[in-house]
Structures are given as structure tokens and as C-alpha cells.
Amino acid sequence: MAEQTVSALVEGGQASAGPPLGPQLGPMGVNIGEVVNAINAQTKDFDGMEIPVDVIIDTDTKDFRIEIGTPPTAELLKNEAGIEKGSGEPRNVTAGNITIEQVVKVSQMKQNGLLSYSLHNQVKEILGSCIPLALTVNSMDPKELQGRIDAGEYDTKLSGDVEEMVEKSEEQAERVQQQNIAVQEEMEEQLEEIEEEKEAEEEPLIGEETESTEDES
Length: 217
Prior knowledge:
Blueprint: E1 3-11, H1 21-25, H2 32-43, E2 50-58, E3 64-68, H3 73-81, E4 96-98, H4 100-109, H5 119-133, E5 135-137, H6 142-150, H7 155-158, H8 162-216
Parallel strand pairs: 4-5
Antiparallel strand pairs: 1-2, 2-3
Helix pairs in contact: 3-5, 4-5, 4-8, 5-6
């Protein structure tokens, strides 16, 4: 039995016959509508997140099966925080805040794809992914929290019942996301100020270039 695999990133519950799936599936003779419906049924719980999907097709019978991957860590973190994007200025502008319990939850969702085996190190890996998104955790810089984990300050918490921590994170999510609405508004204001400062710094340089050109002529 010969098989071919089509891989794509699709938005949870929102796959369509258009790109990226349609153009790849079309030449294979499979029923694209059935594939799309199957994918959407299996990814509807990941609404708003990009999900890696494999469509494995029997080239003889045109039967297919769907394998759904875990969303990228960044997507899971943004979903936990209730934000659409990071700040793009992780050193200067915070995009939001999540709790250590939410980090534990993400570590469990990504468990099979992490390099670490202990919960302590898995959590540290996820904290590393918070940095480029400009997310704080328990209102701390993720690097600071990594250091505190290394120092043993979180040994008791991270040795506790993981299921309880995940349940607690789900209770915290709504409050965290509500708080992050204000953080995102402040983020946009700060980014506008940074952009204005950059433009102001560039204006004298443009003037200098104009003067230099006139002198040469």
C-alpha cells in the first residue's frame, strides 16, 4: 500500500479547500471537502490557534487518515494569555502576564515534543518561549523565574500534583486574560511611542544627507 503525506499548518476548526491544503490535495484525487471537514472536526477545540496537520493518503484507494499535532508553544502561550501577538520589543514592552500553573499546563500539552524529562526542566523550556513573546510569568521576567527554579524556590510547587496545577490554571485563565486586555492596550501605546522616537531620530539624518548632496553639487 503506497501512501503520501500532506503536511500543513491550519487554523483550528477553520481549514478550507484553499491554500495551503487545497493545492496540495487536488492532484492526489482525494475528496478535499471530506478531508477539510475531518480536520475541522478534530481541531475545533483549538479555535484561533495554528495546528500542524498531516493528511496521510492511500494513493490506490484514495482513503485518508488525519493526524493532528500539538500547536506550536508560542500559540499555546498566546492562547493562555488571551493575546494575539507579542510586543516585538521583549526587552522594553510587556505583552501580557500568565501564571506558573499555566506554564505547567503548556508543558504538559507539549510534553512529547520537549527535550527535558523532569517537570522542572520542562517548565524552564516553556519559560524560554515566553521571552520572545514578551510575556511575564507570575509578574516576573521568565529568566528570573528560571533562576529561581534553579535555586530550588519552586521545588515544592513543581513536585506537587500536576493535574491539580492544570485545573488551577484553567480557573485562572479568565482572570489573567481580562487583565491582559489592559496590558495589550498599554503595549500598543508604548509601541507607538517607540515608533515615533525612531522616526524623530531618523529625521536629522535625512536632513544631513540632503545637505551633503547639496555641498557636493
